[in-house]
Amino acid sequence: MRFTVVAVGKLKERFWKDACEEYLKRLQPYARTTVREVADIDPAKAGGVATARVKEGAAICGTLDSLGSSTHVMLLDIGGRERSSEELSRRLDELALRGSSDFAFVIGGSDGVSEEVRRHAVETLSFGPITLPHNLARVVLLEQLYRAQKISRGEPYHK
Q1: Main-chain dihedrals φ then ψ at residue 132, nearest 5 degrees
Q2: pLDDT score recorded for residue 124
Q3: Contact in structure between 71 and 4 (CB atoms under 8 Å)
Q4: What is the pLDDT of residue 157?
Q5: CA-to-CA distance for 81 and 116, rounded, in angstroms?
């Protein structure tokens, strides 16, 4: 199984980097997991929010295209489908049984994603109606992927 997290912006603070690195390390035995960052576009310099969103979207879509057409793309979106940890684990297992082994999870920029990115997504995933900073959303996603793998194998979760 392969997980690719496509995220707008770079992690700047050490504590975000450390948290992501910890979950990436924990995921190693279960799935080849990588994070691909695309540049965060400043709307003031790009000519507005819509233009910045389109430019970020083009970079996201280029990254998704490089992963191949068989990659199952899930967009993190506050309006997406909420799943418990167990439901996410079952969904990934279900998709794997259908032959999907490559998954991409997209975390857009602070102004959302372009329609082009939405068209690439096979489904949307939400962590609930709360607004999360994008750095925290990345950590939560990696933790949930790790948890889903532990659930899938019936292993105890490392606390």
Answers
A1: -110, 140
A2: 98
A3: yes
A4: 82
A5: 19
